[in-house]
From TrEMBL:
Protein name: von Willebrand factor A domain-containing protein 5A
Domain of life: Eukaryota
InterPro entries (alphabetical): VIT, VWF_A, vWFA_dom_sf
Listed SMART domains: VIT
Organism: Cricetulus griseus (Chinese hamster)
PANTHER family: VON WILLEBRAND FACTOR A DOMAIN-CONTAINING PROTEIN 5A
Domain VIT: 1-123
Length: 706
């Protein structure tokens, strides 16, 4: 859709306040009607689904108009009535179909009028595997696959214009202030930032801003690194004075954060149940990019599935689902990972086709999660594969020690296990009378780690300061809403009533509520026909209507089921590269990407056994480019299992020939190294030196450096 009329949205200004693990955001959208007729501006935009939107207001001619949160149908009716009477009206709702998409309507904006719309929200920051806290400001709204019978009221039915980046008529600015008692080591971003400015000598406070000229070609990401993040913490927040003292918003709330520093564990020691969910819809028959020699989506997916199957630890349980309009699974229930079951799965993967029709993912997901769990093998969704191959904290429990007359009731769902690299946040309501004098409470965190019973005790003050934004209360309310709010098509009447009550009381938006504000103070109602103006979004590869999702770990990208696979994979490869020449990397990775993983690399990986080893045979030496007789003769440990020599050769060859795609095979490498330590530990240095000489390599991989 091309734009032929002026766009009323002129700029977006974001103020970000990050305190430890929580972000408070204020986003102002500035509108101006440059036309000669009144307009209704409609802006559909993405936002993290964990965001708790609690405020929506308009600034018109210096006057602040604060919106009220109401039941959605009631708010919609009020908006339409105001529009018909010529009043200015403002409406904000969460999409009926997608929790991470919102629509903002500015109705009856007269010619020449200016208005600033501000929405405020809070959210927990995502924890990355390297300990960084991640904030994302979504700037790209990607197309979604929609279930036709459920999406009649979706924001995606609005025909949103798409324009080239250079023609986008509005700008984005962002200033971020970061505070943490742990000390701020650095702030990184995928976008250009101003140099970090420390506001305190001890580096507990800092500020950065988005450089001018952001092109809306990507989501804005910040990675914040603190000096110490593993210490458990408890934060208490007083409730609203005008609320009942025993209510959700009237009683004090507490947030417990637990991020244990767990040791690495060998892959062979890991357990778990892993379920792989693969898109086999018809759209997977298309090429990965517009280049004719690039792979088909389905072939790339099969390669990735092979890599993941080879990366699983012995003794775990697994299953593979394929979905489209219907779904199929390899085994009636998850099976134990052995050489036999792995070989059967690999054989079936090779025969998979993109022949299941549409892209209906909900039904197989429901089937996966409703099944009984296997004792001692917690179900892993696929995105946590690397987490699950490491240590986990089990049998987690929480107990409170507080002054007489004060108790805690949990607001968060029970969670009994967390893996290395994961964090646990728990919300609780404090019931009873808070002590008047200086006093403290204590939380005891008990858990099991590698068979040992451990505990952490955290003392916290019971004289907390009042937070004007009531961040903890609203995050707790959002947590409760997410547990109960399954959307209008799935939520029971009882749960819907609970969601409405929590949403209205806390002021946090839900799928059953909406913000509405009406400005009746105009000298006269707006006259004349109203022109609808849908705010355009930028044209990027990721919102071109091409094919269904697929990334190197078979996950959907963050803000839409449709993503440009080349962008996703190339960016991930570049993130794992240590080269400083990004342009050279991009050209190199494009070549690797379009041809798929090297055939020899895939062939080598396909020869790996379920336990992580390779056999010394002609198939292996053909890939290595050596003869079987010469390879056997070069083995410095002829009295030992020749699989150890073969495995060392395979790992060194991978580093020499497949280093550009190391991020894809590092898990199966870990399994191979773990097998070597179990079966040839004392001989590893000798085998590695001999393999280096035999393969004529100049460097020994870090994984073998003592």
């Amino acid at each position: 859709t091309l734009i032929s009329s002026p766009v009323p949205l002129k700029s977006i200004s974001v103020t970000l306040s990050i305190n430890d693990f929580v972000a408070g955001v204020s986003a102002t959208l500035n509108y101006e009607n440059e036309e000669e007729v009144p307009v209704e501006a409609i802006f559909v935009f993405p936002m993290d689904e964990d965001s708790a939107i609690y405020s929506f207001e308009a600034l018109v001619d210096g006057k602040k108009i604060v919106a009220e949160l109401q039941e959605k149908m009631q708010a919609q009716s009020k908006y339409e009535d105001a529009m018909s009477q010529g009043h200015q009206a403002y409406f904000l709702e969460e999409d009926d179909y997608s929790r991470d998409v919102f629509s903002c309507n500015i109705g009856n904006l007269p010619p020449g009028a200016k208005v600033g719309i501000t929405l405020r929200y809070v959210q927990e920051l995502t924890l990355e595997t390297d300990g960084a806290l991640r904030y994302v400001l979504p700037a790209i709204l990607n197309p979604r696959y929609q279930l036709s019978e459920q999406s009649t009221n979706s924001c995606f039915n609005i025909k949103t214009p798409i324009v080239p980046l250079e023609d986008l008529p509005y700008t984005l600015s962002m200033v971020a202030t970061i505070t943490s008692q742990h000390g701020i080591e650095s702030v990184q971003s995928n976008c250009s930032l101003s140099p970090i400015q420390y506001l305190a000598d001890d580096k507990t406070s800092a500020q950065v801003s988005l450089a001018e000229g952001h092109k809306f070609d990507r989501d804005v990401e910040l990675l914040i690194y603190y000096s110490e993040v593993h210490s458990p913490s408890v934060a208490v927040e007083m409730g609203m004075q005008d609320m009942k003292p025993d209510s959700l918003m009237g009683a004090p709330s507490a947030m417990v954060s637990f991020y244990p520093d767990l040791p690495e564990v060998k892959g062979s020691r890991a357990c778990g149940e892993f379920v792989f969910l693969m898109d086999r819809s018809g759209s997977m028959k298309f090429h990965l990019s517009y280049q004719n020699d690039s792979q088909l989506h389905i072939e790339a997916a099969k390669e990735t599935l092979l890599l993941l199957l080879k990366s699983l630890p012995m003794g775990c349980y697994f299953n593979i689902y394929g979905f489209g309009s219907s779904y199929e699974k390899f085994f009636p229930e998850s099976v134990k990972y052995t050489q036999k079951t792995m070989e059967e799965a690999v054989k079936r993967v090779k025969d998979l086709e993109a022949d299941l029709g549409g892209t209906e993912i909900l039904t197989p997901l429901l089937n996966i999660y409703k099944g009984p769990s296997i004792p001692g093998h917690p179900l892993q969704a696929l995105g946590s594969l690397k987490f699950a191959l490491n240590c986990s904290v089990d049998d987690f429990s929480l107990s409170w020690d507080m002054p007489p007359g004060l108790s805690a009731s949990m607001l968060s769902p029970e969670q009994t296990a967390i893996c290395k690299g994961q964090r646990l946040i728990i919300y609780a309501q404090l019931n009873g009378t808070m002590p008047q004098e200086e006093s403290s409470g204590e939380v005891c965190l008990k858990y099991t780690l590698q068979g040992r019973s451990l505990e952490n005790r955290v003392t916290f003050s019971l004289q907390p300061k009042t937070n004007a934004s009531f961040i903890i209360h609203r995050l707790a309310a959002k947590s409760l809403i997410q547990m109960k709010d399954l959307g209008s098509h799935k939520t029971s009447d009882g749960e819907k009533e609970d969601v409405l009550n929590i949403s209205i009381q806390s002021g946090v938006l839900s799928s059953f509520t909406a913000f509405i504000a009406v400005n009746k103070d105009l000298n006269q109602p707006v006259q004349g026909p109203l022109a609808p103006r849908v705010i355009p979004r930028p044209m990027t590869f990721s919102n071109l209507p091409i094919t269904c999702p697929y990334s190197t770990d078979l996950e959907f990208n963050s803000y839409g089921s449709f993503g440009h696979i080349e962008d996703i994979v190339l960016m991930r490869m570049m993130e794992n590269s240590k080269s400083s020449t990004k342009k050279t990397n991009l050209q190199k990775y494009r070549k690797v990407f379009h041809k798929g993983f090297g055939k020899k690399v895939l062939c080598l990986i396909s020869l790996q056994k379920a336990n992580g080893s390779w056999e010394l045979d002609k198939d292996l030496t053909k890939i290595l480019g050596t003869g079987l007789k010469d390879t056997k003769a070069a083995n410095p440990a002829k009295d030992q299992d020749p699989s150890a020599w073969a495995t060392v050769l395979a790992v060194l060859w991978l580093h020499a020939k497949g280093k550009d795609v190391k991020c894809e095979w590092e898990l199966l490498e870990s399994k191979a190294v773990a097998w070597l330590h179990d079966h040839a530990d004392s001989s590893i240095p000798m085998l590695v030196q001999a393999a280096k000489s035999f393969l004529k390599l100049s460097v020994i991989p870090d994984v073998f450096v003592v």
